[in-house]
Amino acid sequence: MCRRRRHAATDLYHRDSTCRLRHTATALHCRRRHHHTATDLRHQDSMLCRRCLHHTATDLHHRASMCHRRRHRTVNGPPPPGQYVPSALPRDHGPPPPHQQAPPPPPPPEPVAGPGELMGLCREGRVKDAVELLDKGACADPAAFYELAAACSNPKLLEELRKVHDFFLRSPFRGDLRVNNKLLKMYAKCAAMPHARRTFDNMPDRDMDSWHIVIDGYSVNGLGDEALRLFELMKECMSPTSHTYLLVLNACANSEAIEEALLYFDAMHRDHGIEPGVEHYVGIIEVLGKSGHLNEALEFIEKLPFEPNAMVWESLLNLARMNGDIDLEDRAEELLVSLDPSKSNHKKLPTPPPKRRLGINMLDGRNKLVEYRLPPKIEKKVVNEQRYVPDTRYVLHDIDQEAKEQALLYHSERLAIAYGLISTPARTPLRIIKNLRICGDCHNAIKIMSRIVGRELIVRDNKRFHHFKDGKCSCGDYW
Fold first, then answer.
1. Which residues pair with 371 in a beta bridge?
2. Are residues 68 and 156 in the same domain?
3. CB neighbours (10 Å) of residue 309?
């Protein structure tokens, strides 16, 4: 009987397409729980869908299987007119109650500061404040990173430079060539060549300036052999320029590589067609003079293809002064003054006498910066075990011999090193920043200190870096 009524309702639905009869046929199928038949009926409108879903939801046995099918037909299919269908959906297919709804995602945090504010702090010298803003989420662009790196040229800001580099590597601009080159230059100025080389090796792109910065950094820090090895790698991918060979000759001078310097000098024109300039000839003179071959340097000057100018004689004058050759120094000075009267012996007879600058040393360690000035008087201590003998030639005051020896003992760089040795962990390098040129007696004393304590002592004067290690200096005793 039930089957007969179901077929009759279906025939009634197909014979008459009026809205009322269609509603009646659908209701009969729903009350008899013939849900499949009711759902398969075509030409649904909003009221039919609502009635069908309402009766289906009352049947617990068919809820799980039928609701998904009807919801798919109603929601994913062409939407029927009206707003009845969503209101008739079961609770488990509608939105969750308010207390079960997930909270909306928080808005993205606004940047603490922008690139302009970071660049302003760098121009004011407040590098540490700028780095703190970066740590708090400040936004930086390539220009801001460039200014941040440029502000860390002082060795005492090496830690800040490393932090800026870390933030730069985490930014989307880590491939910016200009910023990477600036980081290389700042690492070289801070005597942190391992960091510079690691940065150079990880750079996605390199240009000629990148190679020049690292080669010059090795040369200035007394690592001439490393500079020459890097130059050999450079020749495999790029053609050297005139400036490249000038940096290579400086590296040869710092490593006393006379034969290599002469070979590179000949290869300039032979292999690359580069005509040597005056600065390249002066570079060869520096190589010979820093190695102690002053006679060979003088012979090289006499064979120059041009008339020696003031630059040539000034270089020979400095080399003769370093090696203690007074006769050659006087001769070079006489020739220099004849070409350039402004280079007269103003250092020997200053008129009026210049104001004497106060020697200042700064020790960087444990994130602290300690400054040392000349004390009034300290006790005399001599390291006899290491054959240290004070060299009183560097004392220009008219005092007796004993007073000269005592005057050498309270130079500020020695006090800075002494404090650093007792206040920093063992076997860690010490960095000393000096605003004057280091004297020869202190240079010898610091070499002995490095051998006694077994630590690397890095001293930066107003000319170059001195890396003291195992009783030797990277400058080769020529600075």
1. 362
2. no
3. 14
Question: Tell me, what amino acid is at 183?
Answer: L
State the Cα–Cα distance between residues 436 and 430, nearest whole angstrom.
Answer: 18
Specify the residue for token string 């004057």: 436
Do residues 411 and 432 lie in contact, with contact meaning Cβ atoms separated by under 8 Å?
Answer: no
What is the pTM for the complete model shown? 0.60
- Cβ burial, residue 49 (10 Å; 0-12/13-18/19+): buried
Residue 316, amino acid: L
Take residue 306 and report the two structure tokens written for it.
Answer: 């041009």
**Cα gap 359→361, rounded to integer Å:** 7
Domain identity same for 367 and 426: yes
Neighbouring residues of 437: CB distance < 8 A, sequence distance ≥ 6: 461, 462, 463, 479
Same-domain status, 57 and 160: no
* Strand ranges of the sheet holding 430-434, from the earlier edge strand across to the other edge: 368-372, 361-365, 430-434, 457-460, 465-469, 472-473
Same structural domain for residues 191 and 147?
A: yes
| Run means of pLDDT, 10 residues per run, the chain, 479 residues | 52 48 52 49 48 50 50 49 47 60 68 77 88 87 92 86 93 93 93 93 94 94 91 92 94 88 92 92 92 89 91 90 84 87 60 46 57 48 57 76 80 86 84 83 87 87 83 77
Whether residue 133 sits in one domain with residue 57:
no
**What's the pLDDT score for residue 112?**
62
Q: Tell me, what's the pLDDT at 100?
A: 64
In a domain, 283, yes or no: no
Q: Which of 367, 362, 361 is nearest to 159 (CA)?
A: 367
CA distance 233 to 57: 78
Q: Which of 189, 205, 221 is the last residue of a domain?
A: 205
Residue 86: per-residue pLDDT: 47
Inside any domain, residue 280: no
SS3 category, 48 = helix
Answer whether 286's CB lies under 8 Å from 315's CB.
yes
- Please give the residue range of the domain that contains residue 134: 112-205
- Looking at residue 244, its pLDDT comes to 95
For the record, the structure tokens of 223 come out as 């690592």
Pick left, alpha or beta for residue 268 (phi over 0 → left; psi -120 to 50 → alpha; otherwise beta).
Answer: alpha
Is residue 301 situated within a structural domain? no
My answer on whether 83 and 129 are in the same domain is no
374-384 exposure pattern, b = at least 16 Cβ within 10 A, e = fewer? eeeeeeeeeee
Per the structure, the count of domains in the chain is 3
Q: Are residues 376 and 465 in the same domain?
A: yes
